[in-house]
Design goal:
The protein has 305 residues and is α/β, with parallel strands linked by helices. The protein has one domain: Rossmann fold. Helix content is 36%, strand content 14%. It contains eleven helices and seven strands. α2 packs across α4. The chain is globular, with a radius of gyration of 19 Å. The two termini are 34 Å apart. The N terminus is likely disordered.
């Protein structure tokens, strides 16, 4: 499966189980022609048409670029007792003392380099002049960051092995936040619910959420019972003590479910629901605001880029 956020990626089709019908394709083709000639507003606003046009490269998410920071990166491989294969990891270090760590959880079909190569989180942190380390680890391309029937448990790996590994390098007791995209956005919320005392803040970009087990694709959960064991809607009360930010584009297939979860947050959230699709461009566009929210929760001052 192609990586989320890449040029060839449209993982949301698999995640939602939606299939483009012949009617949708014809409608999209007609809309593409109509757009070139000044289509009616209602045609351009049809979500199916807009998503198809996005796939064709005719409409786009907002984007945001920051200067390359050339921050120091340390990489390695973790042999985990909770995973069936070694997990790659990278930590980006600020030039001065570390005031906190942003733990990044990647999306479906991707790996830990998503935070660095696609979203450029360390560059966003550097542009904000925030003394934060950025750390990411491979959780499995389709793990959805929870214990699976095959024996893998990337969440336990994160808690029991990766966080201690990072703090062994940056200093124990460092304040923490967790940030994720799509599958990783869901994972970030789940991690914060499972152990809210570990984190000060959680930021989820377009988290992959479903409100019923019947709506989920097979890759996300091992049946209905597994969905209910890991239902972030059911555990939302555990987020009462954290700063929680959810961002999602209005053309994202997870928009409705994400809005529902945001409305249930115990203390509200400083996120956004504006123009954008389910892609890396949109996630880059909200990254500066996410880092500003995280830094504020960790008691760190920033300069918005």
């Amino acid at each position: 499966m192609p990586a989320e956020g890449s040029a060839s990626s449209h993982a949301w089709i698999n995640q939602t189980g939606a299939m483009l019908t012949r009617r949708t394709l014809l409608l999209g083709g007609a809309a593409a022609v109509a757009l070139g000639a000044g289509a009616a507003v209602e045609e351009r606003d049809d979500p199916r048409v807009r998503r198809l046009l996005h796939r064709l490269g005719l409409v786009h998410s907002p984007d945001h670029q920051v200067p390359v920071s050339h921050v120091e990166e340390i990489s390695g491989e973790l042999t985990s007792s909770h995973l069936s294969r070694p997990a790659g990891w990278t930590i980006a270090m600020p030039s001065g003392p570390v005031a906190g760590v942003v733990y990044c959880l990647h999306g479906q079909g991707n790996d830990h380099r998503m935070a660095f190569d696609d979203i450029h989180v360390p560059d966003v942190v550097a542009a904000a002049r925030a003394p934060l380390a950025v750390a990411a680890v491979d959780g499995g391309s389709g793990s959805y960051w929870h214990a699976r029937a095959d024996g893998d448990d990337p969440l336990r790996m994160l808690f029991d092995e990766f966080i201690p590994l990072v703090e062994g390098r940056v200093g124990s007791g460092t304040r923490r936040a967790v940030l994720g995209w799509s599958m990783g956005g869901y994972g970030a919320l789940l991690a914060a619910e499972r152990d809210p005392t570990r984190f000060e803040a959680v930021a989820a970009a377009s988290p992959a959420l479903w409100t019923t087990p019947s709506a989920t694709p097979a890759i996300a959960f091992d049946g209905a019972a597994d969905y209910h064991r890991n239902d972030v809607f059911a555990g939302v009360r555990h987020l009462a003590g954290l700063v929680v930010r959810i961002d999602c584009g209005t053309d994202d297939p997870f928009y409705d479910a994400d809005r529902q979860l945001a409305a249930r947050l115990p203390r509200g959230h400083p996120g956004s629901f504006g123009p954008g699709f389910h892609d890396a461009a949109y996630w880059r566009s909200v990254a500066p605001a996410q880092i500003a929210t995280i830094a504020s929760a960790l008691g760190v001052s920033t300069e918005r880029s």
